[in-house]
Amino acid sequence: MTGFPGAARPVRGGFVLLAPDTGRPLRTVPFQYNPDSLTRTVQAQGIGPEPGDRLEAQRLKGPAHETYKFEAEFDAAEQLADPAAHPAEAESGLLPVLCALESGLHPTVAQLVEEDRMAALGLIEVAPVEAPLTVLVLGRSRVLPVRLTEFSVTEEAFDTSLAPIRAKVSVGARVLTVDDLGFRHPGGLLYLQHHRARERFADRVTRTPSDLGLTGL
pLDDT value at position 120? Predict the structure, then answer.
């Protein structure tokens, strides 16, 4: 059965890992199925230490803290039905995509080996290695530099080699702002683009107090 000829192709969300210094894409991991629901929490950065501080009640010291929580589901059943077209899934199930998703949480083997070499020479640096910049993509209007704060994988079915073929990934992510990255960092520039888009959407709401039954404020 074929789809409707004029049907719009759904946009897939996912993650893109960028080189932290150049912003070059290193790895793209799309969601197989977009999340059914998403919880977004926004907390303002106020500076008033106590309620009732009249001088500081309306002041903001920086961008709000914004977090996302959602679940992404993956299933290799369709790929396994045609192993010639999908050799990676036929051989390893969902291990490639799951490892790609969590690759931004681990230093690379090369980084670990280099740290060990430098430590043996007495040249170990104090600064930890810098991970790739993780970008959460939820459509063209929401492209967010994030740090993963939660990453939990539930593997629900396996092939005969014990490779997972169905999995649910629970993700928690905090949006990184210019406070975290600076204004010239690739992630800081992405945040500013996201913030501009949010302001443009807000400007589309043109209601007035009279729409709430008020004659004035």
Answer: 83
Cβ atoms of 180 and 189 within 8 Å: the answer is: no
Count CB-CB contacts under 10 A for residue 96.
Answer: 15
pLDDT in tens, 8-21: 677 889 999 998 88
- Of 21, 28, 22, 39, the closest CA to residue 143 belongs to 28
Give every CB contact of residue 38 below 8 A, 6+ residues apart in sequence: 68, 69, 70, 138
Number of domain units in the chain: 1
Q: Residue 3 falls within a domain, yes or no?
A: no
* Tokens read off for 202: 């807000």
| 18 CB-contact burial (10 Å; exposed 0-12 / middle 13-18 / buried 19+) | buried
For residues 51 and 193, give the distance between their C-alpha atoms in angstroms, rounded to a whole number: 33
Q: Identify the H or E element spanning 147.
A: strand 143-158
Query: How many separate helices (H) and strands (E) can be counted in the chain?
Result: 6, 7
| CA 131/CA 147 separation, integer angstroms | 10
CA–CA separation, 97 and 85 (whole Å) = 16
Strand partners, 46: 60
Q: Quickly tell me which residue has 């036929």 as its tokens.
A: 90
Asked if 14 and 29 count as a contact pair (C-beta separation under 8 A), the reply is: yes
Q: Which domain holds residue 157?
A: 19-44+60-203
Residue 114 pLDDT level (bands cut at 50, 70, 90): confident
